[in-house]
TrEMBL record:
Organism classification: Bacteria, Bacillati, Actinomycetota, Actinomycetes, Kitasatosporales
Organism from which the protein derives: Streptomyces lichenis
Compositional bias of kind Basic and acidic residues: 87-97
Protein name: Uncharacterized protein
Keyword annotations from UniProtKB, A to Z: Membrane, Transmembrane, Transmembrane helix
Transmembrane segments: 42-62
Region described as Disordered: spans on this chain: 70-97
Length: 97
């Protein structure tokens, strides 16, 4: 149960990172191409650029804690199958002579 909380928190924070970066890139494109002149725009378009590193600073320790929880207690996933690309994943490339 505790592992699921770390996974959910990490996943939500990761989405926040992605969306804030996407919004930052969109506002940057608007700033570069249209160059809006309202006074509020000068401070508003920078908000997502500040939110992205802030979200990354929050996401990084959550990801570390999630990995520790998964390693310590195993996974709480519905299936017992290992993740693709994990240490138990043996593909033909790995076993080739």
């Amino acid at each position: 149960m505790r592992t699921r909380l770390w996974v959910a928190a990490t996943r939500c924070t990761g989405r926040l990172v992605c969306w804030s970066l996407a919004i930052a890139m969109a506002t940057g494109a608007v700033e570069a191409s249209i160059a809006p002149d309202p006074a509020w725009w000068r401070s508003t378009w920078l908000v997502p650029w500040w939110a992205t590193p802030a979200a990354l600073l929050l996401w990084a320790p959550l990801r570390v804690a999630e990995k520790r929880a998964v390693r310590a207690g195993g996974t709480d996933s519905e299936s017992a199958e290992p993740e693709p690309g994990g240490p138990d994943d043996r593909t033909a490339y790995d076993t080739a002579a």
